[in-house]
Write a structure and sequence with these properties.
One of its GO terms (molecular function) is DNA-7-methylguanine glycosylase activity. This protein is an all-alpha fold. The protein is 56% helix and 0% strand.
Amino acid sequence: MLAPSRPAARGLSPRAARAHLSADPVLGPVVRQVGAMTLKPLTREPYEALVRAIAHQQVHGRAAEAMLTRLIALFPGQDFPHPEGILALPDEALRGCGFSGAKCAAIRDIALKSVGGLVPTRRAATRLPDEELIQRLVAIRGVGRWTVEMLLIFTLGRADILPVDDFGVREGYRVAAGLDAQPKPKALAAIGEAWAPFRSAAAWYLWRAADLAKENKFKAPAAI
């Protein structure tokens, strides 16, 4: 059952988010160690963001960018190929960019759903609640909830998204809380209620905590 729809949250407010999260017993020390939030959403259309997300699925970032560069090169004069152009491409041209068969099918479906209006423009997306956007876009081939959550945070700048299925977010909480094991997604969702309406910022700080721990630079709360 869907959660009741609510208006789309306003954009990220780093100062307000930092003030709110600093009071949290687990996130507070992370915020103080990391400092100001530097998350700045990219100005892209949702269609482009989804195609790029598909390209990056399960491959190294450099390989994904190489495939996207070859795709863009097929459309001189365009910053990014329009969905109509993608649909007009022969299969061998799309495969020639390096995309797998599954990725080709997903990219074509994103283009088809964009032409048909299921994938909203950036402007139209600003009027849609988070959960409505998620439910619309997960109907696209190859697009799951996590992918849409990344779009909501990094493209649309939504302020209150907590991707509880994300490994880095759960690992960041494990590190910050000094746990032996990562919390389950459902448990983290419950914990994260206290971070609303700044759960996107909370996710960003948890990613930073996981990164610092990977580099052996994370300071336990008692050492901060």
